[in-house]
């Protein structure tokens, strides 16, 4: 397949100071792109300049995007990479953890994209959303993350209908990558180990770069062969996907993996009362 070169392309990356963001900035720069990042933790003098911006602040996003676009003298590619995680059982009322995941994982990407669309339309550029396999194959005790990432995909689908004549819109679906995004979940005794197979960050970055350089913007991109299979099962055989998740969960509960997790207490009680 014919590819588009990244040389000279003007790229804006959100969450640029995080695990994916740092690796993305390095890889894009090495490929010849000009990159500016946005992040709550600025690094204006870094090899990839990162401008400070609280993406959850509606008044801060548009000025930050304008500053980045001015620095790049236009925009060819927006990578909505910023994201946060955290435990959130669906049976409990939404709290600050839930609100923040919806704000960062969905609304921040929405705000950033809306602010970046005029220069992207001018350049016939692209938008890439970094979602999650959990947008297609949700897991228990992480409702906010799955909901926010599934909503992000729905936003990307709507955006594609509206601007797809001028801007390519793609979604990339990583699985679990070792990064601080999982720290709060692990601290709550709800580690994903044994539920989701880890993959290297380099593979996710490579998938994003393949998406950015494809001749036509692909709609949905899995980062591994296993990911493609999981997405296919989640979309085309959801009942089978449910059974697989329930079987894995039952094995973890029986093994006592979640005994020390207060947020899993209700599920543990119901499992043992059957």
From TrEMBL:
Gene3D superfamilies: NAD(P)-binding Rossmann-like Domain (3.40.50.720)
GO CC list: membrane
Record-linked SUPFAM superfamilies: NAD(P)-binding Rossmann-fold domains
Keyword Translocase belongs to the record: no
GO molecular function annotation: oxidoreductase activity
Record keywords, A-Z: Oxidoreductase
PROSITE patterns: ADH_SHORT
Keyword Oxidoreductase: yes
PANTHER family: DEHYDROGENASE/REDUCTASE SDR FAMILY MEMBER 7B, DEHYDROGENASE_REDUCTASE SDR FAMILY MEMBER 7B
Family of the protein in this entry: Belongs to the short-chain dehydrogenases/reductases (SDR) family.
Name of this chain's protein: Short-chain dehydrogenase
Species this chain originates from: Micromonospora chokoriensis
């Amino acid at each position: 397949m014919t590819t588009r070169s990244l040389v000279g392309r003007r790229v804006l990356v959100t969450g640029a100071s995080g695990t994916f963001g740092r690796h993305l900035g390095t890889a894009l720069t090495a490929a010849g792109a000009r990159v500016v990042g946005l992040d709550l933790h600025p690094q204006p003098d870094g090899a990839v300049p990162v401008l400070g911006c609280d993406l959850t602040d509606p008044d801060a996003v548009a000025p930050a995007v304008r500053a980045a676009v001015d620095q790049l003298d236009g925009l060819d590619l927006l990578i909505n990479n910023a994201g946060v995680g955290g435990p959130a059982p669906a049976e409990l009322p939404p709290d600050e953890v839930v609100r923040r995941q919806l704000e960062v994982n969905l609304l921040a990407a929405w705000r950033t994209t809306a602010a970046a669309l005029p220069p992207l339309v001018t350049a016939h550029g692209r938008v890439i959303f970094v979602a999650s396999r959990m947008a297609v194959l949700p897991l228990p005790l992480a409702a906010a993350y799955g909901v926010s990432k599934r909503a992000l995909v729905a936003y990307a689908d709507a955006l594609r209908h509206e601007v797809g004549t001028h801007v390519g819109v793609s979604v990339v679906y990583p699985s679990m990558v070792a990064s601080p995004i999982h720290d709060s979940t692990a601290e709550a005794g709800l580690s994903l180990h044994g539920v989701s197979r880890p993959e290297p960050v380099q593979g996710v970055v490579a998938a994003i770069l393949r998406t950015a350089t494809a001749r036509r913007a692909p709609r949905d991109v899995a980062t591994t062969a296993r990911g493609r299979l999981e997405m296919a099962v989640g979309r085309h055989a959801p009942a089978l996907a449910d059974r697989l998740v329930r079987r894995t969960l039952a094995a973890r509960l029986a093994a006592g993996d979640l005994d020390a997790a207060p947020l899993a207490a209700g599920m543990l009680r119901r499992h043992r009362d059957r």
